[in-house]
Amino acid sequence: MSIIPARAMGQPLDRFDGADKVRGLAPYAFEHPVARPAYLSAVRSSIATGQIVGIDCSQASAQPGVLGVLTHLNAPRLATDDGELRILQSEEVAFRGQFVGAVIAETSEIARHAAGLVRVDYRPRPHDVDLESSRERGRLRVPQQIMPTFPVTADKGDVDTALAAASVRVDHTYRTPWYNHNPIEPHTTIACWNDDQLTLYVSTQYLAGVQNTVAAAFRLDPQQVRVYAPHVGGAFGSKVPVHSDLILAVMAAQLVPGRSVRFALTRHQMFTQTGYRSPTIQRVRLGADADGRLTAVDHESVEQTSRLGEFAEHATRATPTMYATPHLRIRQQVAALDLPTPSIMRAPGESVGMFALESAMDELAVACGLDPVELRLRNEPVAHPLDGRPFSSRGLAACLREGARRFGWQPRQATTTPSRQDGWLVGTGVAASTYPVLRLPGSKATIRVTPDGRYTVLMAAVDIGTGTRTALTQVAADALRVDLAQVELRLGDTAYPPAAQEGGSAGITSWGATICVGADELRRRIAAEHGGTIPADGLEVTVDMPENPHLEQYAMHAFGAQFAEVRVHGETGEIRVPRQLGVFAVGRVVNPKTARSQLIGGMTMGLSMALHEASLLDLRYGHVINHDLATYHVSSNADVGAIEAYWIEEEDPYVNPMGTKGIGEIGIVGAAAAIANAVHHATGVRVRELPITLDKLLPDR
């Protein structure tokens, strides 16, 4: 596979939609102008599990301006087996906060007031929402595989025997909490029925997914559903799947024919309706010889899912990629609880799994008396440790060396004494990063050219605020071998050819490869059929995403190295992170400006994961109690010090025609571990449960 030559790619261009966003001219889902909109407010269950035994809607219905009230008694019947989407289909309640009704009204204020007047009586059942208790009682199961390339169990060699014989051993349990999505734009839908045609303005990462899921649930042909999402205000994975809020909006629109129904989740509702990252309990066992070379790696994880559907946070899936070892085992189990269903969250699996593995590697470095950078370099594999395939490219060692140089890393032994500066304990930490190069199926692209040399590229992809619109135009210009000004890219509408989801750091990889094939076909036809001249009536081609012949031959991954400096106050235990630095091997970088934004955004999210974020579950009632941005803490400007993101030059002709690997998620991977390792270096206290709060630094009493 040859990589297309670059002229536009590699240029640090401003986002094409940046000025419109700053001026408020780029409409998000709720802002699209529609005639005579109605507004929806949801009624949510106040029990964790049980049955509805009575609903009184009389007060709500009597309110001036109320257009209708939805309950399971009058809701349309849905044709879906997805437990999360089968709302208002029976009297059953599966989790606290589940939609059990809704009010449609002339204004959002009336709808919200009336929703509070709906009285629901329940017959509650005892609930089980405790992951730790389920693990102790053995109420676990092996999850189904989400993707064949990411097994939930794997074995190589004899791990137990190798661990028993190892000169140095590490065996610890690491815990990560429940994390919730909090994108700037909440999940929002405008739904309008016009006879048997449905129009949706949705905040989504996956237009075709919305179109097909809604069509199936409401017994429609997908062509009867048109979905718009020209601009999306952040997502972090939460807007890949269809959630119940969208289904509720479509139901409500059926109750008021000819009216558009607007529904935006409140921040509180975001904590129950849009998925979350499952808490994890991970045990990592490492065995090494006296020189620090790994002889065995064992990583197991326990997570939660819901009784409505299964989602597994594949916390162990990065482990087989990382380090050379003759004996390797991973195991994963889930507990089905009376809680909402977890979902995709930035770097699902890797972000939490690498916290555990890279913390354990730091512990192994201490036990072996080795510098943590040297330990990782000493365990570099020559091929994929599990399946033996060669890597299409592997830049981890280069990232570690370049990161150490840029950071000013001081090699150290286990006995290194942390320094003190003005009452602060100062420490440094390092961790590795990785993320697979994914290709998501289902993309097509149409490319049109007019006689004046103007090209239009159409596909139902989305830009969730990452700069996709700009970077993909750069790819198209180079693939077409024309100037950037000659290309117009149109996204965000299911009237265009379908596109894979914006997720898995696979957008540019999947969509860009499709555009490259389309550009090749268009240029071939102009040359072969029209003598090298664009015909008078123009020309159009539509193509599918190409197959990659190298997928089975090579292991394809991005890598990186994260460094952090922390300061811990000697008296109060206050933690500050004045400096983070990451160096990444991510193939060709299409737009350095937007790439840097993605990488430092991920690193900031890793800082937040390390020190601040945790959803706190009230076991008595089965709900998250800190369900707002006042009490669910995320890193703010005051928490973030200097963040530097760099990348090494890396040419990989096997991943795709652009040579890209994806950058949206790798920035978060390893960041929390680097900070935790730095905290240990500063204080001598090993924190194995996130977030790292002051109480965890206190001596045992």
C-alpha Rg (nearest Å) = 26 Å
What is the second-level CATH architecture of the largest domain? 2-Layer Sandwich
What is the fold-level CATH name, i.e. the topology of the largest domain?
Aldehyde Oxidoreductase, domain 4
Q: Ranges with pLDDT <50 over ≥5 residues?
A: none
Percent in strands:
15-25%
CATH superfamily of the largest domain: Aldehyde oxidase/xanthine dehydrogenase, molybdopterin binding domain
Mean pLDDT: 95
- Main β-sheet, in a few words? 7 strands, mixed
Write out the strand line-up for the largest beta sheet, numbering strands in chain order.
3-5-1-13-10-11-12
Oligomer: single chain
Q: Percent of residues in helical segments?
A: 10-25%
Give the structural class: alpha+beta
Large-scale geometry = globular
Number of DSSP strand runs = 28
Distance from N terminus to C terminus (CA atoms, Å) equals 62 Å
What would you say this structure looks like, in words?
The chain has 701 residues and is α+β, with helices and mostly antiparallel strands. The chain has 3 domains: 18-26 and 440-544, Aldehyde oxidase/xanthine dehydrogenase, molybdopterin binding domain (Aldehyde Oxidoreductase, domain 4, 2-Layer Sandwich); 32-125 and 184-234 and 240-273, Aldehyde oxidase/xanthine dehydrogenase, a/b hammerhead (Aldehyde Oxidoreductase, domain 3), CATH 3.90.1170.50; 154-179 and 277-437 and 553-697, 2-Layer Sandwich (Aldehyde Oxidoreductase, domain 4), CATH 3.30.365.10. The protein has 16 helices and 28 strands. The strands form 7 sheets. A 7-stranded mixed beta sheet has the order 3-5-1-13-10-11-12. A 5-stranded mixed beta sheet has the order 7-17-16-15-8, sandwiched between helices. It has a 5-stranded mixed beta sheet with strand order 18-19-24-25-28, sandwiched between helices.
